[in-house]
């Protein structure tokens, strides 16, 4: 895989990778995460696709300006990114967790620029979410929880996987690097509090988003890890109900990042789904 580079998207210094040639694919990470969650995906897809992986505004090693963060704002940033790299074609969007919600929002806002969706343990399909994210909505408590420490970063990484062997020292160190970035807590908390509260993920934006997108009947693949501790696999049942046209798959013995924990199977499943479009 290529090394990440930096690109100006407007005034935002943006970390990204572009690899491969073919129809364009955009990889979108989860809250507090980075493009590094796609290191096993990008090489597999780049054999037949032009793959873009980016740290979204406010996350990873991309700038974290003092702006009003929202789901629409994140989707708008993805659109601005594609304009900055000169990609005019409709894109395939692959999003994990928050990135799945951003992918859906992008498809609603820019239907002419959206070709297919792959939603990986995606936000937007249920209310229940891990206690740690609900606590972030509590004023004062959230700010204290965002204080960076190696121990907190290690616990966060461990929560993402069913198999603890994937919570490697390298992943823990990278998570701590992200946690120590300037203004990281502000952007993280603003996004988290727009999307959810103490009781869980807010229903209003979820219902509006899925109802609107369902009418577009965009070809969609939805996958989940059966042992996800962040967003329960129960959400997949609701996803099947709101997007009855979608293909779905549940990975056994898998946590919140099946693209890492079940990389080979995830890549094969995704490539088969994308191949149906050609």
Automatic annotation (TrEMBL):
Residue ranges of every copy of the AB hydrolase-1 domain listed in the record: 23-262
Gene Ontology MF term list: hydrolase activity
Protein name in the entry: Alpha/beta fold hydrolase
Keywords: Hydrolase
Organism the protein comes from: Deinococcus sonorensis
Superkingdom, taxonomy of origin: Bacteria
PANTHER family associated with the record: ALPHA/BETA-HYDROLASES SUPERFAMILY PROTEIN
Pfam family of the protein (one): Abhydrolase_1
